[in-house]
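Consider the tokenized backbone below.
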């Protein structure tokens, strides 16, 4: 990650909240540099799914309106959006008046698509929507009960391997022990990860130890998921693979990246930790 670029972001700095609508606070970060560091990576599809729980604006009479918003950034957008700048941008709507929710959605789509360099989908969810009211763990078999000894707390792809004579399987494995750190502030990013694949059976103990090995890794959510995808792909050569993480919210935002070898839309329900 280009440190000089991040120094210009609002992350780690005291920044005043805009008092009126201001799209200029959005801070795009190019995906290319981190992807180059991954080397010869496989093709993938997917998206970064964000949920904003602190969106509000004023109607034409000055009455506040609230909503929960979901944003879908395509995996192939040239830029991701730095999360603190996203928070500042969303809060710039607080004291601005709009004719209706459709006007807000239109502005959000325009500004975020401009910043990301690709079309961004925006949906406003009613406050009683199932996705807001209900929550459930990620679907799959949990690895977290395995009795393993952990010695690596930096990304350790050498821990990944396949079970000898394990054959080809189709399974979904999950863990709530994912943690990485913000590359600027060092604050912890807590998450749950779901790994679905068809291919040679993955050694589960090694996979859990690998997931925990990201514990002291300093990187954005999206790049952590892409690194996990590449490391698992190289180690096990599956026929199909999806890596999907749901991170706990910070500043009213949660980020949930998904990368897959094939077109698939993950379950977007929030987890109990979110």
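A designed sequence for it:
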């Amino acid at each position: 990650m280009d440190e000089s670029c991040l120094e210009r972001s609002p992350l780690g700095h005291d920044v005043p909240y805009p008092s009126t609508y201001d799209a200029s606070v959005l801070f795009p970060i190019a995906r290319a540099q981190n992807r180059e560091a991954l080397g010869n990576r496989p093709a993938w599809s997917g998206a970064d799914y964000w949920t904003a729980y602190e969106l509000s604006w004023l109607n034409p009479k000055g009455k506040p309106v609230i909503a929960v918003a979901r944003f879908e950034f395509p995996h192939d957008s040239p830029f991701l959006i730095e999360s603190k700048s996203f928070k500042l941008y969303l809060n710039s709507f607080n004291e601005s008046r709009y004719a209706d929710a459709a006007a807000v959605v239109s502005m959000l789509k325009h500004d975020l698509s401009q910043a990301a360099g690709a079309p961004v989908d925006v949906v406003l969810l009613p406050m009683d929507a199932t996705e807001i009211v209900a929550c459930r763990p990620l679907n799959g078999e949990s690895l977290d009960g395995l009795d393993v000894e952990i010695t690596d707390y930096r990304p350790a792809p050498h821990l990944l391997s396949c079970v000898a004579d394990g054959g080809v399987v189709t399974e979904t494995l999950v863990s709530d022990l994912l943690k990485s750190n913000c590359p600027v502030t060092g604050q912890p990013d807590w998450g749950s990860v779901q790994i679905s694949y068809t291919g040679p059976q993955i050694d589960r103990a090694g996979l859990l130890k690998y997931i925990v090995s990201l514990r002291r890794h300093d990187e954005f959510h999206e790049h952590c998921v892409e690194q996990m995808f590449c490391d698992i792909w190289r180690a096990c050569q599956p026929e199909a693979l999806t890596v999907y993480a749901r991170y706990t919210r910070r500043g009213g935002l949660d980020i949930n990246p998904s990368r897959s070898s094939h077109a698939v839309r993950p379950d977007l329900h929030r987890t109990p930790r979110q």
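The first strand starts at residue 28 and ends at 30.
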